[in-house]
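# step 3/5: fold
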Amino acid sequence: RSGLGSSSTFTVGLINCMNALEGIYNSPYQLASSAIHIEQNLIKESVGSQDQISAAYGGFNEIEFYKDGSFSVEPKMINIERKKSLNDHLMLFYTGVSRFSSEITESQLSNMKNCSSQMHELYEMVEEGSKILMNPKTPIEEFGELLNSAWKNKRSLSNKISNTQIDQCYSAAIKAGASGGKILGAGGGGFILFFVSPQHQINVKNALSNL
């Protein structure tokens, strides 16, 4: 209930353990597919599919989903200095609110027909984000600006994704020097991630000292 993908990661780990007991090897694709099937079809939870894939594959990947339910995973070759720079710009805070992601996701799914333009914009941002991270000559700050645009888009998908508390946290962080951020997972609580230049991080930390 934190938005960090722990439920899907647990499912992938459990399948992996059970396979090991039986002496069975599953590819990352099979592991992820089984976890998605268990969560979405057997338990019938309204959850996405990206967390299971991230847990099964590991690494820094671009995931593409297809209409037939299949997917492809492309590892992104980001140099060590660039990856370190990205990590050095990220701050993670716990909102203090735990929630059931399926409830948030259900409200988002029911509103999907009204969010076609936002979904297309979010899709296009994936390629833009990849280009920023893959090109060491592009200022890393552009990724923070992209996160800000993505968050504005995401929060419009459902009125349950954000709330007054989250909006106040976000505004306070931006005012203190963050260039972008987003609530992780389905939204409504859990963890919130900010992109902040190292020189502004103490200001953001102080602004969100209650978290």
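# step 4/5: annotate
Residues 49 and 67 are 13 Å apart (CA to CA).
# step 5/5: archive (pending)
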